[in-house]
Amino acid sequence: MRQSMIDDLWGDDEEDDDTQKDKYLTFRLDVEDYGIEILHVKEIISIQKITDVPDLPDFVKGVINLRGQVIPTIDLRLRFGISPKEYDERTCIIITHMNDIPVGVIVRLRLRCRRARRTVSFRGSGAWARTSKSS
Predict the structure, then answer these.
(1) pTM
(2) 10 Cβ partners below 8 Å, 6+ apart?
(3) What is the DSSP string of the chain?
(4) From residue 94, how far is each of 36, 102, 134 by CA, in Å?
(5) Which parts of the chain have pLDDT scores under 50?
(6) Which pairing describes strands 60-66 and 69-75: parallel, antiparallel, or unpaired?
(7) Phi, psi angles (nearest 5°) of residue 121
(8) Are 77 and 85 in contact (CB under 8 A)?
(9) Would you state the pLDDT for residue 76?
(10) CA of residue 42 relative to chain centroid, distance
(11) In this structure, which topology does domain 23-133 adopt according to CATH?
(12) Residue pLDDT, tens place only, 81-120
């Protein structure tokens, strides 16, 4: 009886998961909006010092130290073949996981969370989606 009262007050974890289902943290790259499923977003941090690592593709900017954890960091603009932009106060790093490895993704965030109208999964993770295309 007591447990059911607690569940009624605080809710069930499964219900919390359902409220996050099909919701994406969105950002714009050039003329298209992209998103990361909110369940896969671990943290959002401001842009910080990125340590270069030699002999990696151009889109891998290097690694960051996040509370003692070394996290590889990629720039999605470069990964998708879009011309680079200088980082500014709206540039941030989204910490997520790809194949159980923490990864920092550099984007210019618009801080929106919305349901996807359509999704296209990218190789390696079902967490990513292209959410719309602008004309």
Answers:
(1) 0.69
(2) none
(3) -HHHHHHHHH--HHHHHHHHTTEEEEEEETTEEEEEEGGG--EEEE----B--SSS-TTEEEEEEETTEEEEEEEHHHHTTPPP----TTEEEEEEEETTEEEEEEEEEEEEEEE-SS--PBTTBTTEEEEEE--
(4) 9, 10, 23
(5) 1-11, 120-126, 129, 131, 133-135
(6) antiparallel
(7) -75, 140
(8) yes
(9) 92
(10) 8
(11) OB fold (Dihydrolipoamide Acetyltransferase, E2P) (2.40.50)
(12) 999 989 988 899 999 988 889 999 999 876 555 565 555 4
Residue type for 21, please?
A: K
Distance (Å, whole) CA 61 – CA 131: 25
Could you tell me if 128 and 21 are in contact, meaning their C-beta atoms sit under 8 angstroms apart? no
Residues 49, 60: Cα–Cα separation, whole Å: 14
